[in-house]
Amino acid sequence: METVAELLQPVEDDLETLLSDLRSLIGAGHPILQAAAEHLFTAGGKRIRPGIVLLLARSLAQDGELSPRHRRLAEITEMIHTASLVHDDVVDEAATRRGVATVHSRFNHRVAVLAGDFLFAQASWHLANLDDLVVVKLLSRVIMDLADGEVRQGLFRYDTGQTFETYLEKSYCKTASLIANSARAAGVLSGLPEERLEALTTFGRQLGLAFQVVDDILDFTGSDQQLGKPAASDLASGYLTAPALYALEERPALGGLIEREFSEEHDLEQALELVRGSDAIARSRALAEGFASDARRAIAWLRPCASTSALLALPDVVLSRLS
């Protein structure tokens, strides 16, 4: 099975360019914000989101070349994603991300919040300068969705009465909206007709949902190393994801533990055993597989080329994190 890095091979040079451009775009502003931004862009993410935009742009161009506006869209996508991570880490009080100290633990909370705001503002400014109102609307929507997802996540903590629909909406806002809307925006910049734009949106949404469900499964099955954060941290924080919601249907005892917020000794271990001992993980995996095959189907029409092959393989690579 290929890794994400191997999949992004067709746009490897583009991603290198993207990183150096991002550093100059952030510009010599305030030294602390500069340091925070530098730290973020070197923290070694996989760059999947801008990678998807670049792969799509190359697939959609007849000559396989990238336009400056597509490059800028990829940069804006990475800025928005990075800004959301900074704010997430503050809200979650995470000390590290991918093994690197988070901005607020390296500087302080105030700097982290400002650095996130600064990146969102930068993204909005560069977005406006693309001079394409449709694209501006698409990515402004993402920034709204990210905040909405974070608020929803907080509102439904330890809430065993929430619906599966609520979970999927929150997952869409937090993870899939950026991929769906930036994929569609790549199509808009390429002048595609409406039904093709819809297909790109479906691809991004279903891929994002598959990605989130896989992440949620790994919270129960992965090691701290694999996750880059302590295992079961979502459940411990009261965030009920697909495996917990499925397990609640089969193991009502889990509800009591969640509702008392794992306040007694061994509550969390017991909850984990209830989830792992049910069909919840298998059902969650089937859910992720369904999203992944929807994503593949949605882009079957792209012209055959190295970038298209990478995009078609991406859903399987997302699922392969479970093996």
Can you characterise this structure?
This protein is mostly helical and about 325 residues long. The chain folds into 2 domains: about 1-130, Farnesyl Diphosphate Synthase; about 155-310, Farnesyl Diphosphate Synthase (Orthogonal Bundle). It is built from 17 helices and 2 strands. It is globular and about 60 Å long.
Question: How are the SSEs placed, and which strands pair?
Answer:
Blueprint: H1 4-7, H2 12-26, H3 31-41, H4 48-60, H5 68-92, E1 96-97, E2 100-101, H6 103-106, H7 109-128, H8 133-155, H9 164-189, H10 194-221, H11 224-227, H12 233-236, H13 242-250, H14 253-259, H15 267-276, H16 280-298, H17 306-320
Antiparallel strand pairs: 1-2
Give short descriptive properties of this protein.
323 residues, Farnesyl Diphosphate Synthase, two-stranded antiparallel sheet, globular
CA-based shape? globular
CATH class of the largest domain, anyone? Mainly Alpha
The tally of beta strands, per DSSP, is: 2
State the helicity in percent bands: over 70%
In total, the number of domains comes to 2
Radius of gyration: 20 Å
CATH fold annotation of the largest domain: Farnesyl Diphosphate Synthase
Percent of sequence in beta strands: under 5%
In the CATH hierarchy, what is the superfamily of the largest domain? Farnesyl Diphosphate Synthase
In the CATH hierarchy, what is the architecture of the largest domain at level 2? Orthogonal Bundle
Distance between the termini: 10 Å
Secondary-structure class: mainly alpha
Number of helices: 17
How would you classify the quaternary structure? Answer: single chain
Biggest sheet details: 2 strands, antiparallel
- Helix-strand string: HHHHHEEHHHHHHHHHHHH
Neighbour order of strands in the largest sheet: 1-2
Mean pLDDT: 89
